[in-house]
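Researcher: Please translate sequence to structure tokens.
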Amino acid sequence: MNARADRPNVFPWPPVILAAALVLGVALTILYPLPWPAGMARDILQGVGILLAMVATALYATALRELWRAGTAILPHHKARHLVTSGPFKLSRNPIYLGNVVLLSAFGLILGSLWMFIVAAIAAFAEQKLGIEREEAHLEQRFGNAWRVYKKKVRRWI
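Model: Translation complete:
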């Protein structure tokens, strides 16, 4: 059987990338702080950051609920049993990975850390290459035309 049809990855890259990005971003913020742009209202930005963290949490919760309801894999290195196109998957093919980037950006606002935004961009690229592209090849192998139709209708990120 084709390796991509069996499962997208042998290692769960996306959650590891998120954890590494959080640790790296916080470490860089502590060790080598970048100055926050002058004139930015810190309290307002922290409030926006908290709201973004809640948005990320809602994305995670609704996406995981849809995967669970469909009876398909939640872990990114397991075989997909069903193509999920409902809930947040109507708006983004990758709402969990979108949530990861939103969460990293939220921490950037909460901590007043420009490093978190840099790390979020790097993490998004790594998730794209090590997670999304492999998962999409897996989904195409597993679900064929149904995947291609869905892929044309729904954007990868937002």
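Researcher: Any highlights?
Model: Helices lie at 3-6, 13-31, 42-70, 95-111, 114-153.
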